[in-house]
């Protein structure tokens, strides 16, 4: 850090000093004050330890990006009253953007960059005793089931694994955890393997036959997680931590 940068850092941290490259009495006083607050030797000199502490303080002082508070990302009006008992998570096997077909099949879509898109059917239509056009996302298991899908994995191959042209992103997964947490809270759905699961787990866990569905049994951004159960367990652990 040259003197200018030290002064600019001090200004960013709220000190009133001139950024002129000359460490005069005001800058020295500011450095001393900063050192005192950070358990450093108070000598008014921007040595390596002080500079490291300035860098650290700047990172902390940076305004947080405008991500809504954890577990608060699904708009309330997307979650009308209904009797829903489980959440089934999918990928669309399409591109990173939600298509018309995607919107017709799922209640909530999460695009490659993490943006949420509402499906055509209200969640309430899939509720027990619900009316209206249902979203059909899981063979013989749509009643009482909310369908959330990540827009990704077009052209992906299960064996040997290849994520295709639109691999699932870490942001999508992080958003999925939050969306599911919101839904669990709203519809009072407990986080268990039978109530929060991926499409790939439906046949094994609920005993409802599906046609070779493997969404979600791989995470393109983390090849160490393999298999439907491993992915499902990770999802449930994340959701549990939020609620
Ligand atoms: Zn699916």
How would you sum up this structure, described in words?
The protein is of the alpha/beta class. The protein folds into 2 domains: 3-61, Muramoyl-pentapeptide Carboxypeptidase, domain 1, CATH 1.10.101; 76-242, 3-Layer(aba) Sandwich (Lysozyme-like), CATH 3.40.80.10. It is built from 7 helices and 5 strands; from the N terminus they run H-H-H-E-H-E-E-E-H-E-H-H. It has helices spanning 3-12, 25-37, 48-61, 100-105, 170-187, 199-206, 228-242, and strands at residues 86-91, 108-110, 116-118, 145-150, 196-198. It has a 5-stranded mixed beta sheet. Strand 2 and strand 3 (116-118) form a beta hairpin. The radius of gyration is 25 Å and the shape is elongated. Residues 64-70 have low confidence and may be disordered. Bound molecules: zinc ion. The site of zinc ion (ZN) has 4 residues, from loops.
